[in-house]
Write a structure and sequence with these properties.
Length: about 400
């Protein structure tokens, strides 16, 4: 995928893991208000952090592309408060210690007025305390674990949360697919995967279904035959796989090789074209919850898709739409804010209501989570297709 740097956006990659054997501590003290006063002229600097290299890179980079695209559009329209926006994007490599290091650099060296990220729930949970202490607003485009925004009143998100997403898939499994017995296979080291698993199990059982097996794996595993064998012995009607594409694609292929022909169900971590390469056709007939469907005729979504295709020469994935919405909501709040101070931007963000995003109309509730719909997609002939919509 080729990418052009925007006129005012600067994308920097930070790769520090090779220099550390243990994770650095988070910033112990926020900068003072005098230190945090942004420059009164020149670009307004915002930060982004996510996995731009490593096993989850195709997730982080597409989020970054959506953010970068939003910054380009805003700058082309005159910027924010009459000033250009500069994006500093740092690579976490999908490692928590790198998320902490990147957040510290954004807060103490770059003195950003706002952070977009982390792209994963685990990463966001790792940096949220430091960001809250610095009183710099953080808006994560894609961290769905409910605990992320509980870290403090400067922490926001523009994606739905796991209890809603997991419950939406459970409802679809029971009411649309008429399933009675399911198994679950989650990533024991990923906060989002565990959160989705918990929400799905609770909702499915509440709806009268039975969870016949709950198995686990760990990020980075390559052989999943052990937990898959346990799933096969439990004889479920479907398998819920709330993990990231980097593992799910391989799990799906190994499941088919073992004779598991049951439907596979999943969550928004599946949203990467790379999953089709890894699965090799094994996801045919699968279903997963996501943030938008490309064939949704909503005018705001279709405008985004058309302009994104013109810019990048390809259709956007859901993660790009999430990054785009997070950046647009954040920049609109900075424009409305009384000043560029963290508290003023925080207050403007908290007032977001009925924002017409690419992933749907978005209102931030009292807990700084969005009220917005989810969709269920199915995979047919190697393509994602709209299956159902689930409203809050």
């Amino acid at each position: 995928m080729h990418r052009l740097l925007p006129l005012f956006a600067t994308v920097a990659l930070c790769s520090l893991a090779c220099e550390r054997k243990s994770p650095p501590p988070p910033p112990s003290a926020p900068a003072t208000s005098e230190q945090r006063v942004p420059a009164r002229e020149g670009p307004i600097v915002i930060g982004m952090l996510g996995s731009l290299t490593g096993s989850e890179a195709s997730f982080g980079t597409v989020v970054r592309d959506g953010i970068q695209f939003a910054v380009e559009q805003v700058n082309a329209a005159g910027g924010v408060k009459g000033r250009p926006v500069e994006l500093r994007a740092y690579d976490t490599q999908g490692k928590l210690e790198e998320s902490v290091a990147a957040a510290k650099r954004l807060l103490t060296q770059d003195k950003v007025v706002l952070i977009l990220g982390d792209v994963t729930s685990s990463g966001s949970l790792a940096i949220a305390d430091a960001v809250q202490a610095a009183r710099v607003p953080m808006v994560t485009p894609s961290s769905t674990h409910p605990d992320v925004t509980k870290k403090g009143d400067f922490i926001f998100r523009t994606c739905f949360i796991d209890p809603f997403q997991g419950g939406a898939m459970a409802r679809f499994a029971r009411e649309n697919l008429k399933l009675e017995r399911v198994a679950v296979l989650h990533d024991s080291k990923n906060a989002s995967s565990l959160g989705l698993s918990e929400a799905f199990i609770a909702a499915f059982q509440k709806l009268g279904g039975t969870v016949v097996a709950v198995e686990s794996y760990a990020k980075g595993d390559s052989d999943y035959r052990g937990p898959l064998l346990a799933v096969k012995k439990a004889k479920p009607q479907a398998l819920y796989l709330p993990g990231f594409y980097s593992e799910v694609g391989v799990i799906a292929r190994q499941a088919r090789e073992m004779g598991l022909t049951l439907p596979l169900l999943g969550g928004d971590g599946w949203e990467s074209d790379r999953i089709f390469e890894l699965a090799g056709g094994a996801l045919e007939g699968a279903y997963y919850s996501s943030h938008y469907a490309e064939d949704n005729p909503a005018p705001e979504l279709q405008r985004f898709i058309t302009s994104f295709r013109e810019r990048y020469g390809r259709s956007p994935e859901a993660a790009s739409a999430l990054g785009y919405d997070a950046a647009k909501v954040a920049l609109a709040a900075i424009e409305r804010a009384k000043s560029l101070s963290g508290p003023d931007i925080r207050d403007a963000l908290a007032s977001t209501k009925d924002y017409p995003g690419a992933t749907g109309s978005l209102t931030l509730d009292a807990d700084r989570n969005p009220v917005k719909p989810a969709v269920i997609l199915t995979i047919r002939e190697g393509k994602r297709r709209f299956a159902a919509a689930v409203t809050p």
